[in-house]
Amino acid sequence: TPRRTLPKTSRCVRAVMVGHLRDEKSPRTLFEAAALLSQHPDIGIEHIGAELDPVLATLAHQTAAQFPHYQFTGALSYPRTRHQIQRAHVLVHTSVMEGGAHVLMEAICSGVPVIASRIAGNMGMLGADYAGLFPVGDARALADMLIRFRRDVEFASLLTAQCAARAPLFSAEKESKGLLTILNSLKEIP
Hints:
By secondary structure, this protein is of the alpha/beta class. The chain has a single domain (13-187), classed as 3-Layer(aba) Sandwich (Rossmann fold). It is globular and about 60 Å long. It has helices spanning 27-36, 54-66, 78-87, 102-109, 120-126, 139-151, 153-166, 172-187, and strands at residues 13-18, 43-48, 70-74, 90-93, 114-117, 133-134. It starts with 12 loop residues before the first strand and ends with a helix. Strand 1, helix 1 and strand 2 (43-48) form a beta-alpha-beta unit. The longest helix has 16 residues, at 172-187. A 6-stranded parallel beta sheet has the order 3-2-1-4-5-6, with helices on both faces.
């Protein structure tokens, strides 16, 4: 369903990651990228997610204490999380495995481009040729892509356009039609 696109600050690029602190979401990649971006105060990172793993929670808080441009907000309600996505310039998704992340649909339907790990679930949703994919676990590539997103208007516009082209795939009408097609095909099974 289409979402509102909210105004964005021009002072810095606001990147948001929505992912609970667990290994499958690869938060260490984000922590390492935050460290690599320490000399780029014009790139802010907000990390939303529950503290499911105590070791990763400690690392998140240490990263926030050491690098002021990284903020760990913990778990937020669904409406508040959606609001933060809509306020962001870009959504970051670092997962090492994913079937199809709902958060990608939220960003895309909100007009927010995505920078994501190159895994099957992300490529299935964004397209195999999507320009905002980086190698799994590669914090340097993620940091470089965020720097490029900040400095290169054409790159940021490309990601925005590619996501806008995918948005119709996630409309309620399209999902309903797909579900009906599946249900109707089940009727034909003897």
